[in-house]
Amino acid sequence: MPVSVRAAPFDPYAEVLAHQASHFASTGAFGATAVFVGTMRDFNEGDAVRGMTLEHYPGMTEQHLEAICAETAARWTLLETLVIHRVGDIEPGEPIVLVAVWSAHRAEAFEACRALMEDLKSRAPFWKKERLLEGARWVSGNTAGYTGQES
Length: 151
Prior knowledge:
Number of strands: 9
Number of helices: 3
Distance between the termini: 33 Å
Largest sheet: 5 strands, antiparallel
CATH class: Alpha Beta
CATH superfamily: Molybdopterin biosynthesis MoaE subunit
Shape: elongated
Number of domains: 1
């Protein structure tokens, strides 16, 4: 269940295909792949955002992401997961995070992918500093995630 924290931009779809090719003998080895790609927005809290710096603690962050992946794998029957997260300077439109989950069945793949992403957003040690037209600000929290309730 690989986890990678990177300063360089990445192509999430190429990463999924490469990981799949290197971890499965055939495409028939799994029944479902759920993928989430989070990208940098150019707005937040009603303001235009020109960019962002994402900070982390090397080693600690990867360990935390690995723990989240292990918890998810213990909860659902998964064949494989992949998490890639950007750090450093990020521009609007660039991918920030990739979460991919392979399973025999779609329900487990969807549920595990969503749970993994929600845990990552709420628990992983990352700190965001947005660059605005009027300066910069630290982001004090994440956007609201899935609550499990229909609205």
